[in-house]
Structure formats: C-alpha cells, structure tokens
Amino acid sequence: MISPMQPSAMPPSYTYRAEWDPERREYQARCLEFPGRLGSALTARGAVAAMENIVEEELSYLAESDQTPPPSLTDHRYSGTFLVRTSPTLHSRLTVEASEQGVSLNQWVVAKLADRQRAFSFNDLFD
C-alpha cells in the first residue's frame, strides 16, 4: 500500500492515455489511476500535460486530507500469473486448439493474448 505523499517523496509514475475527440476537435487525456478526470488540449502532449496537472492537484488534495493515493499501474511489479475464468465450452475449445498445435493450454492462451489487436496508444502519435 502506498502511503500519502510527503513533500519530499517522488510521485508515482501514473499511466496516461490520450486520444483524439473528433466532436470537440481536441485531444482528451486520462490517467488510468484517476478515472473520471480528463485533460484536454489541441495536441496529445498538451492533453497529457493538462492531465498531469490535474493529477498533481488531486495528489496534493489527498496528501492534505491524509488520504492514500491510488497505486501506480506503471510502478507495480507484476508476477506474470493471473487466473482467467471462462465458460466450459471455451475452455474445451482452447484445449483442443492447443492440442492441435502441440503446445500446452497456457502456451496457446499466451500466444493468443500476445497476438491480439493492439489498441492505439499515445506513443503511436510520435513514431
């Protein structure tokens, strides 16, 4: 658990995303750890900067009120293990597919997850 930020503490590395909003004709940025808040600007970088300012204000408020800020998704150390619940039908189908490919069910599911369509990301704007 993360304790409230002290003035000398480094802020967590939060996870930001920006996307174009065609109706507003501007970029909208969000911080995954602070849902419901948006920063906006004419550029993706500007929208993220606006969202970073909103997060800084929120962190200051949380510190002043002795509340714990949300943990960072970016700074978290992941084990690589998670449990997935599915229907018996899908479980059976994936097991058969894995067997047909000569790999374990785990290897087959990892391959399927790794091969999925990637969502558009902030970094795609600058590559």
Structure notes:
It is a single chain. This protein has 127 residues and is an alpha+beta fold. It folds into two domains: 1-75, Double Stranded RNA Binding Domain, CATH 3.30.160; 78-117. The chain is built from three helices and three strands. It has a three-stranded antiparallel beta sheet, covered by helices on one side. Strand 2 (26-31) and strand 3 (39-41) form a beta hairpin. Helix 2 crosses helix 3. The longest helix is centred in the middle third of the chain and has 21 residues, at 44-64. It is elongated, with a radius of gyration of 20 Å. 12% of the residues are buried. The model is unreliable at 1-8 (pLDDT under 50).
What are the defining features of this structure?
2 domains; Double Stranded RNA Binding Domain; 127 residues; disordered N terminus; three-stranded antiparallel sheet; 35% helix; 3 strands; 3 helices; alpha+beta
- CATH class of the largest domain, named Alpha Beta
* CATH topology heading of the largest domain: Double Stranded RNA Binding Domain
Secondary-structure element order, as H and E?
EEEHHH
Q: Report the sheet-strand fraction.
A: 5-15%
Query: How far apart lie the N and C ends?
Result: 35 Å
Q: What's the architecture of the largest domain in CATH terms?
A: 2-Layer Sandwich
Number-wise, the strands total 3
- Shape descriptor reads elongated
Kindly state the percentage of residues in helix: 25-40%
Biggest sheet overview: 3 strands, antiparallel
